[in-house]
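Hi P.,

Sorry for the delay on this. The queue was packed all week, but I finally got your sequence through. Input first:
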Amino acid sequence: MQRITGWSVGSSNAPPLDGITVLDLTRVLSGPYCTMLLADMGARVIKIEQPRKGDDTRAWGPPFVNGESAYFLSINRNKESVTLDFKKPEGRDLLDRLIAKADVVVENFRPGVLKKLGLDYETLAATHPRLIHCSISGFGQTGPRSQEPGYDAVIQAEGGLMSLTGAGDGPPYRVGIAVADVVSGLFAAQGVVLALFARERTGRGQRVDIGMLDSVVALLTYQAGIFFATNEAPHRLGNRHPSIVPYEAFRASDADLLVAVGNDGLFRKFCAAIGLESLGGDARFATNADRVARYQELRPILAAQLETRPRQYWIEQLSAVGVPCGAVRDLQQVLTDPQLLSREMIATVEHQTAGALRQIGIPIKLSDTSGTIRSAPPTLGQHTESVLAKDLGLGAAELEALRTSGII
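Then the structure:
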């Protein structure tokens, strides 16, 4: 396969997945997020899209940047876009030839859809035993609900996250990002890497089966632990922590502040720093268990004191004695933070039509073989001719015939 990277396979500075080719049959968020993570770490990702339409998210907006969806642009960098109608015999032949050259296929169709097309794991594995086939779906490939579609908001509701999010006396809320999609993409990328590692030992590929409901339930951690310990479902607590007090947001005189007082020693330091030193020695609140039990009694005292000064004053006082705290910030404040800039968590790439395009950087920092942002998200079909010509050997006349017939 032709490469778009600036290093040679096996070179000392190559990212971890250099030399791996991923055929991306996904769309919307969970699948594209997975394949972007793989691409960031050096994999060559060829994104297969519908001719003339492309990934659904290309039409999601506003906002658009010179006609390009901001949503699509946020999760599709480092990829090559090939338009291909693989439901037609000529397109399917081209897809099969690309699969033969790939290490990984990633898809997020509803279970059973690709089986009808002969693109399911069992069919492909019979011909390509080293192929890794990753499927992301709402409820996984097995079980009584496997045929149901998976949408982020529905999975947040069905997976219990909404029951835990929001004020105790208010309605349930979904998280402010599509966390079910994103965490499923994260687990899918991890599963692909694990399958690649296993293939080095066995020489065989395997299926990676990611259910969005499974992924969300895996996030429940200590909340599930509370249920297992008590057999009672935890309730919504707003910003309050169910097992640590004080560990939540408070209002300063001008803005919101988050404090995270994780042990008894920190509580005493916290009380002294905010001018309530006697409270740190109050027997009613001596231990974390006491503070959890007397939360309704303790919180008004703390809230009244913290409202007397500006947020930055409290941050300086608390930070000076090692009490974890922080400002509740909006994205304008977050995405201009010098700390994030110094960590290269805001990157700029040049897009073919959108121009200079800011992107979230790569959070995994490896000392020797870190990932890179090599190219902007592709325009629809930007790489169709180059991939089919260089990788499959198609000539100009063949490409023109495919274009005329609507295959590409």
